[in-house]
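Note to self: the last two entries modelled the partners one at a time, which told us nothing about the interface. This time every component goes in together.
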Amino acid sequence: MARPTSQLGLDRADVRQARTLARQVGKPIVDLATRHTTVSVERATLRLAGLGGADPDGTPWVNRLADVVRADVGLEHGVSLPVWDALLRGDADDLLTLAQKAAAGSVTFRVPEGKDATRAASASRKAVAAGIKQIDRQRIAREKMIAKVGDAPSKPWIYLIVATGDIHEDIPQAQAAAREGADVIAVIRSTGQSLLDFVPEGATREGFAGTYATQENFRLMRAALDETSRELGRYVRLTNYASGLCMPEIATLAGLERLDMMLNDSMYGILFRDINPIRTFVDQRFSRQIHARAGIIINTGEDNYLTTADAIEAAHTVTTSQLLNEYFAKEAGLEDWQLGLGHAFEIDPEVPDSFRLELAHAMLARELFPDAPLKWMPPTRHMTGDIFKGYLLDGFFNLVGALTGQGILLVGMMTEAVVTPWISDRDLALQNVRYVMNAAGKLHEDFRPAPDGFIANRAREVLGEAIGLLEEIKDDRSTPGQPPLLSAIADGTFGLMKRPPDKGRGLDGVARKAPDYYNPATEILEGQ
Amino acid sequence: MSLVRPYGDTTGDGMVQLSFTLPIEHSKVAEGAAVQLANKMGMDPALVVHAKPMGDGFTFFVVYGRVNHLVDPSTVEVVERDYPLLTPKEANAAIKRSLRRRLVVVGGCIGTDAHTVGIDAILNIKGFAGEKGLEYYRELKVVNLGAQVSVPQLVEAAREEKADAVLVSQVVTQRDAHLLNTREMSAAFREAYPAAKRPLLVVGGPRFDETMADELGVDRVFTRGTTPGEVASFIVHRLTSPRTPSSPATTTTEKAS
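The predicted structure of the combined assembly is written out below.
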């Protein structure tokens, strides 16, 4: 299909160059990721093979088992060969029993060699394939259900958040939000879950400013929204967060329980949670491979840059990050329709022409990624507690969303920074969205920025700065022996935070793969 | 100053606006119930200017009305600023003059709080409200530990860096987490340091009450709208002026003029 010529007058050669640079910056990171594994990748593999549940203290069996394997033979071979070798040697009849025995100290693991290794590899592959088959079945179930009950009626999809901390409170709230018009429900995670090196188990009723992501919570919420989808005659999507130290495991659970969207940014954990960069990139790649397989749409977190840096000065860091996220996503097998690349309406409303600047930035994202849904995030920084002004700002945010064909619109609340949304806040926010979409939803058909006007010029300027930044990153050698992107992250290129590759949380859970490393999940996901 | 009433468009008219939701289907009875609530809150007469169903069994109301209450500004208790506001240049000069070394500030969000917006607004060079953050001050050494720092980590970092002041931001307030965390933090510092050596403890966040410093065991509580310059000025003032043995009063009752 021929693309319409650029409304912003972007030079195709510039766009190509930006993508080439993103690939040049990203490729060494992918190479680094393929040379390493992490505790969470290995635990995700065990989860795919069907190991779930937790011991009486709440420590998941995947953690107990992986920890013992690691203590016995190290992480560098992967857990699959030692675990299935033990099963084949008759140490236990199934994974759960093996995990229990291992936790009790009655099993010793070894790294099998020769024929034993071949047999262990093939047995592990069979077990893990069953989990991936379940993910495939869930993807088909989603497609069938959308065909049967219908899809969200229009774009952008209306994205609403629930966050009570109690899954049994979240469910009626999510169902009510769907009835009020939400196409996507996101259950915000409990503050701090990203730094847990295990996934909590079971239905949870307590959380801080959010609800724990657990397999059972996923299952309960998806079942409730299935019911509501049938009632409303449109499929209501469910979102959670594949981020933090357990990103690969949470992605796996999302695939198994048919979540539809996952927050999954390539650098967020590094910059904002001080998670080790190598850990993050390894976990990131595995989780994106799972999302690709599961037909899950990822949402990236570029909006976060603008909550710490100035939204005008840092506009090009958003573009740069979008380009990198796109590269990493596609390398992991995700397709354009799965890329909810993030951006946000965060320019200080006191700045002259702030709306035109917002429009320029949003149009740039739209033109650079024409087939990606794009996730449009509402103002938060300049929501001051003046709810009346905030309501107006949200209206202008919605208008930019309408004008630039955003795929996913996170509904802004006028009580941002005041309270977690009340029922009336949500209703008023949805009225705001509906008014703008009814009144101006098709305005993009008429609206063309002047070819050399303020908006087009600003968009070209931001693209130029993004290219400049990518070039700078490509040549960053400040951390010797590391890929340039790691050097750039170490010296504070993004979001003003400096994150060196040998620091940060979760580094002790990273291992360089040995020559005999084996992971059946990666093998299947990479189509070998 | 004299007693005052809310002002709509005429002195003394006492007009206020109010919005709320009642868990009842929209009906005439629901509107009557809204008026009743407003009356009980002291609005009389109360006029329901807007009523709209919101979801099943809920109605949202906007009510305008008159209240007869008088407020007396002379009895309002506030924490008045008891330190001079310094420009970054003046702050740097004061540190140089009195400490002859850089003043070390360690900051972070403690507990499970992941909202670094507050600490970053104060510490990051970017700053807040047009004022540069503490990182901008040449004579301040700023160590921002970021989010989800445990209290032991904070104490350890403070020792390691020989912190003169420790800044803690708390945004999440569910189940009073901000108060519990702050008390835990101040107790840990009291335990880890002899009283005279303890760094200055400063806590901030949108839901704190400024008058609670003593109760929380900290030297100062900052609340919504605090700028980096205020925090820097306070720290510099307290650490470069002769330290008084007893904790100075942080609450002053003052007639607003």
